[in-house]
């Protein structure tokens, strides 16, 4: 099942790579002209409309980036990194997301974890995607915990929420491209996480029940 999932992700990533450049070029041109026109004094009263159009173009560009991130042929720039340092670097951004929804993020970091080969940019994206999914699953004033730990063979990243758990009837579809339970979701967030993990030769597992869900990413030492 895991091989089939990764093959699907790779196919979508290759298709996106073939057309991504052609789509991004006109989007960039349109965005530039919108910014230029919106800076003119006689268009100031329409600033909110210009900002909306620009934000939608940015969202389109983000979706293209998610497609491109699915390919297993994408080259990860692996360097020795401390997973804790990456978590701490993006914690302020994650905290803003949580506070905007009246939720809390706790850190439980194992200070003794060894450095491992990671692509810092990709791991940032993986953490952001998993944390935002967890925040969306939780009720008002919910607490999400980010943990790191290790054993003799692995360094583990754990994202644990206190939501109501994943319904049994959709568990097998978790990580499948385009599958989403959100009204405005692309169904690519978790798919991107699985692709990033695969490029790092890491494994993603999750446990879920009525008290919440915990995603664990295990990296080889």
UniProtKB/TrEMBL annotation:
<dbReference type="GO" id="GO:0005524">
    <property type="term" value="F:ATP binding"/>
</dbReference>
<dbReference type="InterPro" id="IPR036097">
    <property type="entry name" value="HisK_dim/P_sf"/>
</dbReference>
<dbReference type="InterPro" id="IPR004358">
    <property type="entry name" value="Sig_transdc_His_kin-like_C"/>
</dbReference>
<keyword id="KW-0597">Phosphoprotein</keyword>
<dbReference type="GO" id="GO:0000155">
    <property type="term" value="F:phosphorelay sensor kinase activity"/>
</dbReference>
<dbReference type="InterPro" id="IPR003594">
    <property type="entry name" value="HATPase_dom"/>
</dbReference>
<keyword id="KW-0067">ATP-binding</keyword>
<dbReference type="InterPro" id="IPR003661">
    <property type="entry name" value="HisK_dim/P_dom"/>
</dbReference>
<keyword id="KW-0547">Nucleotide-binding</keyword>
<dbReference type="Pfam" id="PF00512">
    <property type="entry name" value="HisKA"/>
</dbReference>
<dbReference type="Pfam" id="PF02518">
    <property type="entry name" value="HATPase_c"/>
</dbReference>
<dbReference type="InterPro" id="IPR036890">
    <property type="entry name" value="HATPase_C_sf"/>
</dbReference>
<dbReference type="InterPro" id="IPR005467">
    <property type="entry name" value="His_kinase_dom"/>
</dbReference>
<protein>
    <submittedName>
        <fullName>Sporulation kinase A</fullName>
        <ecNumber>2.7.13.3</ecNumber>
    </submittedName>
</protein>
<keyword id="KW-0418">Kinase</keyword>
<feature type="domain" description="Histidine kinase">
    <location>
        <begin position="18"/>
        <end position="221"/>
    </location>
</feature>
<keyword id="KW-0808">Transferase</keyword>
<keyword id="KW-0902">Two-component regulatory system</keyword>
